[in-house]
Amino acid sequence: MNQSENITPANDPFASLRYREFRNYAIARFFFIFTLNMQITLIYWKVYEITRKEFSIGLIGLIEFIPAFCLAFYSGYLIDKADKRTLLLKSIIGNIVCTAALCFITSAFALQQFSQPVVLTCMYCIVFCIGLLRPFAGPTSFALLTQLVPKEIITNATTWHTGIWQVAAVAGPAVGGILYAGVGITNTFYLMLVFLTVAVAGMCFIAKKPVLNKERNETIVESVVNGFKFVWRTKEVLGAISLDLFAVLFGGAVALLPAYADKILHVGAQGLGMLRSAPALGAVLVLLLLTFHPLKKKQGIIMLWCVAGFGVCTIVFGISQQFWLSLGVLLLAGALDGISVIVRSTILQLKTPDDMRGRVAAVSSIFIMSSNELGAFESGITADWLGLVPAVVVGGCLTIAVVAFMFIKAPSLRKLEY
Questions:
Q1: CA-CA to 141 of 20 to 30 Å: which in 9, 33, 163, 166?
Q2: CA distance 365 to 253
Q3: What is residue 182's three-state secondary structure?
Q4: Percentage of residues in the chain having pLDDT higher than 70
Q5: 196 C-beta neighbours (distance < 10 Å), count
Q6: CA of 97: how far to CAs of 100, 126, 129, 189, in Å?
Q7: Which domains does the chain have, with CATH numbers?
């Protein structure tokens, strides 16, 4: 942390940005997440373009989930014993290698040096490699945050941290779709290499951080068990991440957007970029509001209502056949999800001790990966079995059912305030 900088008031909406290292981190985080969202959007679209099957895009989620899940336990153990800044930097560099591989593969395909099955296999392999990197990037970012700003403004830092992610998630798919249509997929991947280089530069201006619990003598198994025990004992944390797990697992309409863009809305790659950006844009708008007017009370019940609203939006999106209605519903879903993400992230930051951050973040990442990647696979499977529209509508109904269950069975979450 920048010891020479003045401590800013906790009610200052720009408190975190007054710290130089946090500003450098914000730049690195934006370009990293921005590129990852461009990357996955183009991978989803290219795979669907080759196969024209919902199952194939659902398979992307499963292929990414398997290595990420297997390494999540080790990542929490390592993060709590290592310099978090260096780990995050290595994760970004690893993604540079994956993006360079995508440049080569798509270029060879364009020159007809690779057949469609070869390109498809290579893309699935790269997604697997991205899955290897993922459990180190997200939890490390979470754990690093408290070493960049004072604890009294951690809520403000969490809001900016989430907001930066959402802004990048808005811009990434939209820019990716536009560039795909304008300059082609290979040139877009080359531009991603530039963006990731900027992210590396931002991280290089952050000093290495001390390891807070270097002397901890635990095996990996003991570390994982202690992380799960802490989450299980802390009911607010368990309730918040469980709610996110099942809500996003069942309400994973985003994974099916390539099929919706092609078969129902007929809007192509550019339309897909707009659809993928809409939820994050809604989240950005609400996060800007919360930065200046943070939630003061009843955060738990607000989160529950927001997740229920997310389920309703999923149902409406599922039955919509109009592009602008679908876009608007996704925008609203993102706004509601943004509120729940802020509440969940703040709960994790405030309830987790410094020496447990890596392990708790790893446990949380398992829940998040299960909801996102397995949610994508579940959506692909159900769309293949039930049809595209029924799969999304049923998912939205199940999301609402999960909220009703949590409302009854998790009173501590319902009554949560911070």
A1: 9
A2: 20
A3: helix
A4: 89
A5: 25
A6: 5, 10, 10, 11
A7: 16-414 (1.20.1250.20)
